[in-house]
Amino acid sequence: MDSILLVEDEYALRMTLGDRLRQEGYVVDCATDGDEGFTKATQLPFDLIILDIMLPRRDGLDVCRGIRESGVITPVLMLTARGRTADKVTGLKIGADDYVTKPFKVPELLARIEALLRRAPTRPSAPSAVYEFGQVRVDVRGTEVVRDGRPVDLSAREFQLLRFFLENEGATLTREDLLTRVWGYSASTFTRTVDVHVAGLRQKLEDDPRQPRFFLTVQGLGYKFKK
Ligand code: CA
Description:
227 residues, Rossmann fold, 40% helix
């Protein structure tokens, strides 16, 4: 279940879009101005941020720049006004991942959201980018995961987490490490998010998720991936 932060000051749009996203199965939190958007984006672990540019207190471009400077790597989808081409260019330069021009059709926005949530992580991968454990084969470059010969559907965040485990095989990783390196975000208050995603990986990749063979709990510390 992916979570989305919607930063939009227009009440009607915030309400209709928020409702629609919830209908689609997303968990939605809202912010009504740039300050609140920045605070939530840097303190809560979202999977995607929808960021309007024209906002009170602090405009969306400034918020986007600020959250990237804080080290948050969550995908950002900007909402830009028609005709403001410069905003799109600036936005993409300072770390936004995509934009939709207002007024937009909801299906178009949903498609962009879906694409961003599934997009391959942009970090360059190691030359040998195929990993195997048990019946699971992971192609990091192709962002493909196959188990028992069948494709496994992982969210973008689950994939990033899996990749981080694979690249750090055998190391004990604290929840804080994982939150910082996979979510790009340094507070330790939301480590529960890590647990939820590890549970997701176990569910999808372990034969018996309750007795994991690969994604191990290190009591009192965090997790460890072992082949
Ligand atoms: Ca606005």
